[in-house]
Automatic annotation (TrEMBL):
It comes from the Bacteria. Keywords: ATP-binding, Kinase, Nucleotide-binding, Serine/threonine-protein kinase, Transferase. It comes from Streptomyces glomeratus. One of its GO terms (molecular function) is ATP binding. The keyword Kinase applies. This is ATP-binding protein. Pfam families: HATPase_c_2. Residues 2-105 form the Histidine kinase/HSP90-like ATPase domain.
Length: 112
């Protein structure tokens, strides 16, 4: 996971308003962690940067779709990933692909 964060940080060095790259890093980390923890398999990360925004997609090889759930106090630090994505991303979603799914999010470079 540190390699993913470092690579994304380098990619986003001069991108967006202050704070946007940190949000992108957090959300990417959440999606990659979810893919690895909940599928027990590899994941493929794609990040596309444009002057207006960022699109991040994490593909895995399990068809089971993730569900947003409100974490409880019994969950400790678990169960917050998709809630964060839903709250902080400008758009997000899940789409099926050949042998699994892709969970993605978009961030506008200039959003507050």
């Amino acid at each position: 996971m540190p390699e993913v964060r470092r690579a994304l940080r380098e990619l986003l060095t001069h991108w967006g308003k202050p704070g946007r790259s940190e949000i992108a890093e957090l959300l990417t980390s959440e999606l990659v962690t979810n893919a690895l923890v909940h599928t027990d398999r590899d994941a493929v990360l794609t990040a596309t940067v444009s002057p207006g925004g960022l699109h991040v997609e994490v593909r895995d090889f399990v068809r089971r779709r993730p569900h947003v759930r409100m974490p409880t106090t019994d969950d400790g630090t678990h169960g917050r990933g998709l809630v964060l994505v839903q709250s902080l991303a400008d758009a997000w979603g899940v789409r099926a692909h050949g042998v699994g799914k892709a969970v993605w999010f978009d961030l506008d470079a200039e959003a507050a």
